[in-house]
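Think of the structure tokens as a kind of shorthand, similar to the way a musician reads notation: each symbol stands for something richer, in this case the local conformation of the backbone. In the example below we present two proteins back to back. Begin with the first one, reading the sequence and then the tokens, and try to describe in your own words what changes along the chain.
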Amino acid sequence: MTRVRGELRLEAPYSPQLVARIRSLPGRRWDRRARVWRLPDTPRARAALHSILGIDVDRIETLGDGAGPDAPAGNACTGPGEPVPSPASTPAALHAHRDGLVLRFDEEMRLRGYAPRTRRAYTGHARRFLAEVAEAPDLAEALRAHVLRRLRREQVSRAYHNQLVSALRLFCAVVLGRRVDTLPLVRPRRERRLPVVLSRGELRRFLKAVRNPKHLALLALAYSAGLRVSEVVRLRPEDLDRERGLLHVRGGKGRKDRTTLLSEMALAFVDAYLQGYLLGNSPGRWLFPGARPGRHLNARSVQKITAAARLRAGIEKPVTPHVLRHSFATHLLEAGTDVRLIQELLGHASVR
């Protein structure tokens, strides 16, 4: 809810029940262009908002004259009785309404098709920001101070820093209605580190050190198909195209499908796992089921499996599932494979 020069503006997530209640407000009208409900700022409308939706208009800040009649409202009512602050709200107001703001942020990401894992990470960043925003003089200073606190408090990676900036930029844009280019959120400089790559000999030692048939099949697929850890754990039995020697990756990074290589070596390990380890039974929905019924193996388990195999193989290099992916790409490049084909197999948007 916002107040702009004698007018009340209400933006709300679509719900048939909520729309029916809004339609009962006196003097309301739907602004299709701005996608907000407009009401006259009168005692009657205020009383109706309080009795029907539980909104106390006296708690809502008034936007300045710079907000013209066609300016869209930058806040929302996430549910009856829980007004959300306007873009001009103070950090104290953002802190007071933090639960509603986080809920709205999650809804906005759902509407935009963000993956559940991304939504969890981004809402976590927003929640931590709103928990400590109250003392700052304005939004810009609050953002700058929060990012500096996170960087000083923890030994964070560049990837974490970049994710934090992405989450706060998106939150400010879709929930607070702020222009991203006006925010003091700077991305970290790109690192120029050489990737860790296993030699073919090290890779053979690594795979020989894996004793569990299920783990061996998983790591062999991760290497020979160049898969991300999130992709290999979500494989289904039908994703293996045995006749064509291809592996279908569904819903990879950016929710993109692609086709990559299915090597005879990896397929032999998978067959040994399916026929011996499972005694001929189907693994079910997932090729690599987890301990909980109906769930796939989680990424953290794969990281532990990889670390244990590295120690048993006596490899001093740091080995992670992503190192196997780098090794796949490097070995193809060394064998003369075109870099653009490698890009497609990896599911990269750019060759850089």
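Once you have a description of the first chain, move to the second and do the same.
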Amino acid sequence: MRNAVILLLAAFSAVARAAIIRSGGIELPTYTDPCKRNDKDFSGCVKKTLQYLIPKFSKEGIPQLNITSLDPFYLNEYLMHFESTQIEGKALFKDVYNHGLGSIKIVDVRSVVEDPEQLELEVDFYMPKVISNGKFKGEGRIGQMPIMGKGVFNVTSYDVTGSWMLKGNAVELDGQRLHAHQGRWHEIRPLET
């Protein structure tokens, strides 16, 4: 699921740049008008644009950039490591298929755009249902008790919500001022009822 947000980052980058994206000599049309930083409702524009782009990228991805579709979203391999006082572990996931990412709803966007050298966005999202399946191998501990396992998994999650933070600094590329973005997960949680 984390990489699905990378696709959202690509979508936002397409919106934030000019009418044509240039990448390695490939010209890609943007799918909507760019959001302008000085727009009084910049956050609303980004929210509307992301929500508009999700269905477009959901089935097709961006083939010119070798970005696959959101639905299903395939991960060849993903290593996860987690650590806290009482729980520690790592897991390797392989051949993972995620279904339902195309149903992402953008709930809210908050932006900080006053400094022309920086851009900050926080994007809240909701997915009604996500199904993930693949293979895993993991090991770790709960307290002093070691745990390990391997096999196949099939997980269905309902009412998934989360926030994604995106920060960027101004850079110059081919004579254009752009923002280099670094995205990260802030929080993902099931919806509390």
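Compare your description with these statements about the second chain. The domain at 42-61+70-181 is CATH 3.15.10.30 (Bactericidal permeability-increasing protein; domain 1).
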